[in-house]
Specification:
By secondary structure, the protein is of the alpha+beta class. It folds into two domains: about 5-80, lambda repressor-like DNA-binding domains (434 Repressor (Amino-terminal Domain), Orthogonal Bundle); about 95-200, Jelly Rolls, CATH 2.60.120.10. It is built from five helices and ten strands, in the order H-H-H-H-H-E-E-E-E-E-E-E-E-E-E. It has helices spanning about 10-35, 40-45, 50-55, 65-75, 80; strands at about 100, 110-115, 125-130, 135, 145-155, 155-160, 165, 170-175, 180-185, 190-200. Strand 6 and strand 7 form a beta hairpin. Helix 2 (about 40-45) packs across helix 4 (about 65-75).
């Protein structure tokens, strides 16, 4: 599934601390740019003020589900909480330069293959979901966007609102963020897929 699973524990710890600091600064900046208090974001996201405060002070390593709720409450793509703002996207983005984030609870691995393009709003993300792992995202409250998923390895179940899809390698699925989403690895192994997000 790639070299990221065998990362040296000490390096992983340092990387975990740096990504927590990045998430903390991005969350605070996005919340303040929208003029939202902790109470406002707590109401919008369903995440407690105490937990939001912990994440903003880098005192807690948030899960994918928690980040999904915060992104939905802010009305921004998840990538805006996990990557730095860049004035000019890189034409060549080597694997070593792609930001990687691992959910501390589910082990879900997210690789930012292509950062969000300022003009088009398109971004590309590779996801590795461990065996039997499940990630739930609420309906987004902000500007909607579309996602195109291309299945690379394993089997995946996607619940898009009341619709359910089971995907095998090579399958493609188009969907939005206007309904709750559930991603669940099926079968006896992990799965890997590519997500391309674009504005509606």
């Amino acid at each position: 599934m790639g070299n990221d699973s065998s990362t040296d524990p000490a390096s992983a710890g340092i990387a975990g601390q740096s990504i927590d600091l990045l998430i903390a600064s991005r969350l605070l900046a996005l919340r303040q740019s929208q003029g939202l208090s902790l109470s406002d974001l707590a109401e919008r996201s369903g995440v407690s003020k105490a937990m939001i405060s912990k994440v903003e002070r880098a005192q807690s390593s948030p899960t994918a589900v928690l980040l999904g709720k915060l992104a939905a409450g802010l009305g921004v793509p998840l990538a805006q909480l996990l990557t730095e703002e860049k004035a000019q996207p890189q034409r060549l983005r080597r694997r070593a330069e792609q930001e990687v984030w691992r959910d501390p609870q589910a082990g879900y691995l997210r690789r930012q293959v292509a950062e969000r393009q300022a003009g088009s709003g398109i971004e590309m993300v590779e996801i590795e979901l461990p065996r039997e792992a499940r990630v739930d995202y609420p309906r987004w409250s902000g500007k909607p966007y579309r996602q195109c998923l291309w299945m690379l390895e394993g089997e995946l179940q996607v619940d898009y609102g009341d619709e359910r899809f089971e995907l095998a390698p090579g399958d493609r699925l188009d969907f939005g963020v206007d309904r709750p989403l559930v991603f669940k690895a099926l079968g006896g192994s992990a799965c890997r897929y590519l997500l391309v997000a674009s504005p509606e």
